DNA sequence: GGATCTTACGTCATCCGTAAGAATA
DNA sequence: TATTCTTACGGATGACGTAAGATCC
């Protein structure tokens, strides 16, 4: 018959306290309960752990030998439970996020800093990949969460909407089109739009929503939203980007104008469907949805 | 709230088996019991350990992280209980015996070999010290058991009798005194006895039991019984030694004669009174008493 | 229908506390 | 007498099993 963890716990307390009475005090149980547990343990082992001598206890050599092993048990259980608690409080764990450059540069640092204020010990890994590659990487387990535009629908992946974003225009104030408070789609078609990237969602979106806008007519072409915005602030044209990709700090001589009718962009979060989400991931999604749906 | 060892045990079984049903089978408990334990564990932790997905379980990242720590708990408990069992079977442990040369050379090898047949894995340390020093060494914890003649009565030490031995005479057959079957005390007083040692129990015993025998009259003097016996077999005199100190193998031209009236020698075992005996020590004492009282 | 997990309910073991007893200093 | 361990008894928690229900393939 084997000893239980409770036997071990009580045995250790007796060894440390040196008496049943004191051990009981430290364990917050009655002294007869300690007697019983010890007797039970000794009966299971088949030999005494303590010599009863004049109302006092003297550990046998066997008890001394078992004590070290018992402490190992105690420590391993403590480590397990400490880890369990730390993970509950998100003091231990890793939040792996993969996002395209634009979101990794503007949206996520803000979201992450907010999230990390609540869980200051949580490790966070933010991995930048091209939007089109993220689904594959997530499917291969390289990160737990992917934040994407136009989420793909691979069967391996689950997708949750983070609400609809929209395209806004970043433009210098001196530009003639900057005089109004909004920009119409028609105005944009012949405006000096900075063309973003080749075969990403942006080009598809433009083809659908602004079919009159042709790549050939755009003087400046880049493949990063951040660069497009930077070019716009230098007066090199109008950047048409997701509103979450607008730089946090803009020069005062720049404006951000909404487009009418609005051009919607789906923002979504993807993860492996058959892989349970970690606690940090769940909470981060929750936090993301809350802030993004509320504004 | 912390997880119990039982929670850990069941959690590990689920992780290994991959399903509650199979885990229950391996644990020899019902499947609902496994469900309950898992639910309880998850409730205590505050987060799920498995994702229920189409009737199957998928471990969460938290479960995977806890699994390693859980295995540590399992292993440490296994080690503890294995050690406990091994000590019960005397497969682990050390029997430390201290004895004077004569007993260490003749009596104890026989006793130990007999004892070790029952407990072939038990480690045994046989330490030789002069009889007069053994009590001190035992009191200082240098060995657990001391086998001595004329046991001392230090308050720190407990003493148990191993029965009475007696002095016998080792003598060559051609010696005139060897013609009878016994030797009387009177015969010995003027015989060529080999004087053993200076201030040990032997000299005290002789002074009491054979007061006529004087050291000055003895031609040959040694301080080891074994040497005395060897000298006797070479015809250098009569060795008067404890019967347990007679060599196991004797030349055929030698005889061992009892002394009449018998000269008793107390043989005893000593150990620290306030230090509980180890299981091997207890059993060795028991075995010693049994064989020594039975012959 | 066969597999799995979950819920419900009753039983039993065991762990614990209170109270009294025994031994020791 | 004060302290400690042991024994005895009774209660409550909890772990388990059986049976039935829900869900998925």
TrEMBL record, chains A, B:
<comment type="similarity">
    <text>Belongs to the LysR transcriptional regulatory family.</text>
</comment>
<dbReference type="GO" id="GO:0003700">
    <property type="term" value="F:DNA-binding transcription factor activity"/>
</dbReference>
<dbReference type="Pfam" id="PF03466">
    <property type="entry name" value="LysR_substrate"/>
</dbReference>
<keyword id="KW-0805">Transcription regulation</keyword>
<dbReference type="Pfam" id="PF00126">
    <property type="entry name" value="HTH_1"/>
</dbReference>
<dbReference type="GO" id="GO:0043565">
    <property type="term" value="F:sequence-specific DNA binding"/>
</dbReference>
<dbReference type="InterPro" id="IPR036390">
    <property type="entry name" value="WH_DNA-bd_sf"/>
</dbReference>
<protein>
    <submittedName>
        <fullName>LysR family transcriptional regulator</fullName>
    </submittedName>
</protein>
<keyword id="KW-0238">DNA-binding</keyword>
<dbReference type="InterPro" id="IPR005119">
    <property type="entry name" value="LysR_subst-bd"/>
</dbReference>
<dbReference type="InterPro" id="IPR036388">
    <property type="entry name" value="WH-like_DNA-bd_sf"/>
</dbReference>
<dbReference type="GO" id="GO:0010628">
    <property type="term" value="P:positive regulation of gene expression"/>
</dbReference>
<dbReference type="InterPro" id="IPR000847">
    <property type="entry name" value="LysR_HTH_N"/>
</dbReference>
<feature type="domain" description="HTH lysR-type">
    <location>
        <begin position="3"/>
        <end position="60"/>
    </location>
</feature>
<keyword id="KW-0804">Transcription</keyword>
């Amino acid at each position: 018959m084997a000893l239980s963890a409770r036997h071990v716990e009580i045995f250790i307390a007796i060894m440390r306290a040196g008496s049943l009475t004191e051990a009981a005090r430290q364990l917050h149980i009655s002294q007869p309960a300690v007697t019983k547990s010890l007797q039970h343990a000794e009966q299971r082992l088949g030999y005494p752990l303590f010599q009863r001598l004049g109302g006092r206890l003297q550990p046998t050599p066997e008890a001394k030998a078992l004590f070290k092993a018992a402490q190992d048990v105690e420590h391993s259980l403590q480590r397990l439970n400490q880890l369990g608690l730390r993970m509950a409080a998100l003091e231990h764990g890793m939040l792996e996020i993969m996002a395209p450059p634009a979101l990794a540069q503007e949206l996520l640092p803000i979201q992450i800093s907010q999230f990390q204020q609540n869980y200051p010990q949580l490790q966070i890994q933010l991995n930048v990949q091209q939007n089109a590659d993220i689904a594959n990487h997530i499917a291969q387990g390289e990160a737990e969460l992917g934040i994407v535009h136009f989420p793909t629908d691979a069967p391996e992946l689950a997708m949750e909407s983070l609400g609809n974003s929209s395209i806004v225009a970043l433009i210098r104030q001196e530009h003639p089109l900057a005089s109004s408070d909004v920009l119409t789609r028609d105005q944009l078609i012949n405006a000096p739009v900075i063309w973003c990237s080749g075969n990403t969602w942006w080009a598809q979106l433009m083809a659908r929503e602004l079919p009159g806008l042709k790549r050939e007519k755009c003087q400046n072409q880049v493949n990063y939203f951040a660069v497009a915005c930077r070019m716009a602030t230098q007066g090199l044209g109008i950047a048409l980007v997701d509103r979450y990709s607008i730089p946090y700090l803009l020069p005062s001589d720049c404006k951000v104008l909404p487009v009418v009718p609005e051009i919607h962009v789906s923002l979504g979060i993807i993860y492996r469907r058959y892989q349970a989400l970690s606690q940090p991931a769940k909470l981060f999604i929750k936090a993301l949805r809350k802030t993004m749906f509320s504004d």
